[in-house]
Amino acid sequence: MFHHNTYGSVYALTLSSGFKLKNNILIGINFYRYSGIITSKIKGDNHGRDSDKWASLENSLNGMNFRIGLIFKRKKINLGFILESPYKMNVKVKKSISEIRTFEYLFPNYNQTKWNMPLIIGAGICFKGYKNWKFNLDLEKQQYKKSDVKLCLYEFGGEPNWKDIFIIRTGIELYPFKWKNLPIRIGYAYLPQLYASNISEGKDNRVLSYKDTEQNIKHLFTTGTTVKFSKFYLNIGLEYSFLKWRRDYNTYIFVKDDYTESNITLFSEIIFNLK
Q1: Which pLDDT tens digits describe the chain residue by residue (275 residues)?
Q2: Which terminus of the chain is less hemmed in, N or C, by CB atoms within 10 Å?
Q3: At 90, is the secondary structure helix, strand, or coil?
Q4: Is 149 helix (H, G, I), strand (E, B) or coil?
């Protein structure tokens, strides 16, 4: 019935510092200042009958928080802990709509609100074994509180369910080649989302209510290496991720929606040695 597009970004200005408490104990802290704009636009269609109808929702966001981390270094094992403070992202809304206000019902009922960002607690271990191979395991918990925030005019899959999220990341670094300075890294991440598959009830083309079923999970696989030169390092890698989502929609007909999202990313990083 309409075309929907959401775009924008939130950026962070970061101030970081690190200290060595002892030879084997290090502590670091980051301060973040967030700001950005996310815009959601709808343009009517309905087989051309609503082509002159539109709506726009612009969200201006800003906030501040900090993250503190601690590392214990041993000969074979390193342990790490992180804590990221919860905070409230300030959200100010700018609404625009066509003269015929067909899509006014999609606007939130506020002009400004707060977005509750989670308390994040994490722990990790790195084990160094035979021939310098390394195994890493990171566990992270994000504790959410419900927020009355609407960044998209229309959420096709339903609203966030604000459940706590438990993330697992693991990986291994090997040196399988005769060139001892060419590692191979393989990683995996288990990333639950704030959205869930659901069973929806509606009338015509409008969803009136829905019930969440299983939580949506993004699976991320990575591989990469580092090439060392005299004055710099070149990190290169490849990421592949996929996510599946399902909705059963009961209206005057029964609709089954099955959605699969997949992404492939090639990334590179250059680190210069100034010594």
Answers
A1: 789 999 999 999 999 999 999 989 999 999 999 999 999 999 998 888 888 999 999 999 999 999 999 999 998 999 999 999 999 999 999 999 999 999 999 999 999 999 999 999 999 999 998 777 899 999 999 999 999 999 999 887 788 999 999 999 999 999 888 766 789 999 999 999 999 999 988 887 678 888 999 999 999 999 999 988 888 889 999 999 999 999 898 888 888 989 999 999 999 999 887 76
A2: C
A3: strand
A4: coil
